[in-house]
Design a protein that fits this description.
mainly beta; 6% helix; 4 helices; 39 strands; 8-stranded antiparallel beta sheet; 52% strand
């Protein structure tokens, strides 16, 4: 049966405007302001069934809201029988209505009281919108006319609300008076679009005319992210993190953190509450001497990789030890586990009897073992990471040079990707090493200047207390610049920096590429997201110091360092446009 309700109406709308105009001979201009406010005396509608005589539901009505717009336009006549026109506007939409409790059903006492069931009382919703348009029309010849146009539109939805119940400790809401669920709804997203065009017309004679027209349009939506939880900023020793090697999310929502500083894998629930610890320092079954990495394995099990002595250990989903298999690949580093259970690891291709001097970039060999107990198969050889070998008395010091050329390899599903940071060319391979695709993008990186070099030197040497050692290392690092960075010209004092910083592959097979950010520059680190076919989907920004480790369909899990260099594991909700 269907019950039809009537909406009560008692609302008012107010409009006001102001403006100023100028009309000169060569130039005309307008500046205007428009405002609007809507007031509704009925905030919500509670309805009940006449057949049952008890409240059955409630819905929110149109909330109070207001908007403000500032607009301007100008037009001018120019030489060559030309006319220029431009217009632009900024609009802000705002509403801050009181939020209603998720339900009025008395069977859900934790959710039917707005004073306790909501993480905040009001919507605090705001949308900003910018528009701009320019055009230039000219007729340099009697038979030739030319028109150039450009348009820009941007919308920034600054409305972030997470449905979190402080009383129940649950993120979500009640659906049709059944059960609370973990969904939080989809806040608005931001996007921008722009276009440029040109048009030319040439009159050949009284009966003939030739024309040429070009237009380019581009639209870009920003993937929204909301911080949903953090581990490492509260609690006892089990919440203190040191040298996080990986963070991953299990199918049941639990979060695993590899704490290399204590050789442990710690498991937390979906809200960040500590549950149990897997492994410890030692040489017995299920213990580690130098734990390096751990993650999801076949089914619901976990796999851990120890650097030395190299071995591969498997635990069940409850953390119970299953088996340990020695790995016949000394000095190797794990890259990841493919969906077929094969393990990928990399190892330096060159073995030296004595360390080299200066900046050296060794090659890396990528190995694959279909199962840990089988022999390793060499998949391919790739360029490695540049390192600076510096003699210090009778020994050598190995440090990272300024702006080094590096290679990032990431395994996910049935593919692996290889990216070198000095070019925006990410190569996609099958598990057997066959090249499948190259994702290329033209980017214009910010040039590196002397102030950027000084900032990076400060970061690189901040832990060195001896002044003489700092001086020697600073000189050595500066000497590496001609080897690691090409200049932008024969007499230029600027350098071309790397283009990318890192890559990730999410659970759906999408490629995430972090664009290189010059140290000390403004703005947030930006990741570009491409689908499995190499088509750009959008961009997402995260706080400085945040490194994504595990990206799922609707979340991003990673590690973040605060101003004191303390590690925290954070999870963000990922809301995609559309």
């Amino acid at each position: 049966s269907v019950i039809e309700t009537l909406e009560p109406l008692d609302s008012r709308t107010h409009h006001w405007s102001a403006g100023v105009e100028y009309a000169g001979k060569p130039v005309q201009a307008n500046l205007a302001y428009h405002g609007s406010a809507f007031e509704n005396d009925f905030k919500s509608l509670t309805w009940e069934s006449p057949f049952f005589g008890e409240p059955r539901g409630r819905s929110s009505l149109s909330p109070d809201n207001h908007s403000h717009q500032i607009s301007a336009d100008v037009a001018a006549r120019l030489p060559w029988n030309a006319r220029f026109a431009a217009s632009g506007s900024f609009t802000r939409f705002r509403q801050n209505a009181r939020l209603l409790s998720p339900t009025i059903n008395v069977a859900f006492p934790d959710w039917n009281d707005a004073s306790t069931a909501l993480s905040r009382r009001r919507a605090d919703a705001q949308v900003d919108q910018w528009t701009a348009r320019t055009s230039l029309q000219m007729k340099p010849l009697r038979s030739l006319s030319v028109q150039l146009t450009a348009r820009y539109f941007a919308r920034d939805n600054d409305t972030d609300y997470r449905a979190f119940n402080p009383t129940a400790g649950i993120a979500g809401y009640v659906v049709e008076d059944l059960n609370p669920i973990g969904r939080v709804g989809a806040p608005g997203f931001s996007y921008k679009r722009w276009s440029v065009g040109s048009k030319a017309s040439l009159r050949i004679d009284s009966k003939s005319r030739a024309g040429l027209e070009f237009e380019h349009k581009e639209a870009k939506a920003l993937l929204r992210q909301l911080r949903t939880g953090e581990i490492g900023d509260a609690g006892g020793p089990e919440y203190e993190l040191f040298r996080v090697g990986n963070a991953f999310r299990l199918d049941d929502g639990r979060i695993g953190i590899v704490n290399r500083g204590t050789n442990e894998i710690r498991i937390f629930d979906e809200r960040g509450k500590y549950l149990l610890t897997i492994g410890r320092t030692g040489s017995g079954p299920g213990e580690f001497e130098r734990l390096m990495w751990a993650g999801r394995f076949r089914g619901d099990s976990l796999a851990a990789y120890q650097f030395f002595p190299p071995n591969f250990t498997v635990f069940d989903k409850q953390g119970k030890y299953q088996r340990t298999t020695p790995v016949d690949l000394i000095n190797s580093r794990p890259v990841g586990i493919a969906e077929d259970g094969s393990l990928f690891a990399i190892k330096g291709a060159i073995t030296r009897l004595a360390p080299p001097e200066g900046v050296v970039r060794d090659s890396l060999i990528l190995f694959r073992a279909v199962a840990p107990q089988t022999l390793w198969d060499s998949i391919g050889t790739y360029s490695g990471n540049e390192m600076l070998y510096q003699r210090a008395g009778n020994s050598f010091r190995v440090i990272l040079p300024l702006f080094p050329r590096q290679t990032d390899i990431f395994v996910q599903g049935d593919r692996f990707y290889v990216a070198e940071n000095h070019a925006y060319d990410i190569r996609k391979y099958r598990l057997d090493g066959q090249l499948e695709m190259i994702v290329h993008r033209n980017v214009q990186p910010v040039p590196v200047r002397e102030e950027h070099v000084r900032t990076l030197l400060t970061i690189a040497l901040e832990r060195e207390s001896d002044p003489e050692t700092r001086r020697v290392q600073e000189r050595a690092l500066r000497e590496t610049l001609p080897q690691t960075l090409p200049t932008l010209g024969p007499r230029s004092t600027e350098w071309a920096p790397p283009v990318t910083s890192a890559i990730r592959i999410d659970a759906m097979g999408n490629l995430w590429v972090q664009e290189y950010r010059v140290p000390g520059s403004d703005g947030l680190p930006r990741w570009s997201v491409f689908d499995s076919g190499g088509i750009l989907l959008g961009e997402v920004e995260y706080p400085v110091g945040f490194v994504p480790l595990d990206i799922g369909p609707d979340y991003v899990l990673g590690v973040w360092r605060d101003a004191d260099d303390v590690e925290h594991v954070r999870m963000y909700e990922l809301v995609k446009p559309g």
